[in-house]
Amino acid sequence: MKKDSRLLHLGILGCGPISQIAHFDAVRKARNAELYAICDVAPDLLSKMAAVHEPRVSYTRYEEMLADPQVEAVIIGVADPYHVPLALQAIAAGKHVLVEKPLGVTIEEGEELRRRLRETKLVLQVGNNRRFDPGIVFAQNFVRAEMGAMLALKAWYCDSAYRYTMTDNLQPIPRLSAHARRPEGNFKADKRRYFILTHASHLVDTARFLGGEIISLRARFKEMFGAYCWFVEVEFGSGALGHLDLTIPVRGDFEEGFQIYGEHGSVKGLVFLPWFHKSSQVECFSAKDGQFHRPLGEDAHTYKRQIEGFADTILSGAPQHGANIDDGVATLRALVAIARSVETGVWVRLDEMAGGV
């Protein structure tokens, strides 16, 4: 594994499951980044992760990691309610930020973060790793370059009742600690809110990445036999129609994917769980040559690729490919809009939203 001569010195905040399963490995494998520091309030967990991943330094206090001049950027991999407050601290300390999705839990805190970020020249990226799936990138390039005007987009995220049978075999057994810091109350108990923040954040961002801005939507919701289903009608800024399906869990296999119909072609994509490190299965039909086009054989470690994209933007000024602050706030507005539309049963405009999910 060959590394670049100039590496971004990263500090990871949070030694919990997402860092253990994704971020530690991704940073260590990234060609242009170094796992310089890790930080967690739980000393036992911090000690175990330091022994395995061998950062140069480790901290139990976030303020100390931010004060380290060698730390150039931080990855925030902790519970959703902490995302914006901790990102604001990092920005105040002059550090670039990669924050796990969703950006935050309310529109107002997202807007405050955007205002503060614009006062700096720092890079903030939201951890929507699907943007670094080679198949999805291939689909976006086709949509932009060859498909012409978009008529409609359908996208779905259907988690499986049997998902953990698969993922538990793929992922390392997470180490836990009784000293870990958690939000007040049981943050995951309100499943409707938790599923929108956790899973719809991927669904909405992929729809925006492929289809452009969402300006309004109408959502319906159904809960039966422990399953939660949202059907969301979408109006894109281009005038195209959209439909989003979030269902958790389905009694069947995990399914994530999209279909797009356009002026000069169409796109179909099936997305795999990211832990397989397998590119989405994508076919793009072009009416210009009457052929199907598909990518094959590209690196599909999306968490590693998002680190490399983040580092390229910081180190060499490369265009930001990942979700930026505007994308993060727009997705937050869509998540709140879904919740509000379910309550009212009517179409809602994203630019009129306020509050949280």
Pick out the low-confidence regions.
Answer: none
The string of secondary-structure elements, in order, is EHEHEHEHEHEHEHHEEEEEEEHHE
Q: Which range best describes the helical content: under 10%, 10-25%, 25-40%, 40-55%, 55-70% or over 70%?
A: 25-40%
The major sheet is characterized as: 9 strands, mixed
In whole angstroms, the N-to-C terminal distance is 42 Å
Please, what is the average pLDDT? 96
Count of DSSP-assigned helices: 10
Radius of gyration: 20 Å
Q: Which properties best describe this structure?
A:
357 residues, alpha/beta, nine-stranded mixed β-sheet
Summarize the topology.
Elements lengths: L7 E6 L3 H13 L3 E7 L3 H11 L3 E3 L2 H6 L5 E4 L6 H10 L3 E4 L7 H12 L5 E3 L7 H12 L4 E11 L2 H8 L20 H21 L2 E11 L2 E10 L4 E10 L4 E8 L2 E7 L9 E6 L4 E3 L8 H15 L8 H20 L3 E2 L8
Parallel strand pairs: 1-2, 1-4, 2-3, 4-5, 5-6, 7-10
Antiparallel strand pairs: 7-11, 8-9, 8-15, 9-10, 11-12, 12-13, 13-14
Can you give a write-up of this model?
- The protein is α/β, with parallel strands linked by helices and 357 residues long.
- It contains ten helices and 15 strands.
- The protein has a nine-stranded mixed β-sheet with strand order 14-13-12-11-7-10-9-8-15, with helices on one face. A six-stranded parallel β-sheet has the order 3-2-1-4-5-6, with helices on both faces.
- Helix 5 packs antiparallel against helix 10 and helix 8 packs across helix 10.
- The radius of gyration is 20 Å and the shape is globular.
- The protein starts with 7 loop residues before the first strand and ends in an 8-residue tail after the last strand.
- The model has no long low-confidence stretch (mean pLDDT 96).
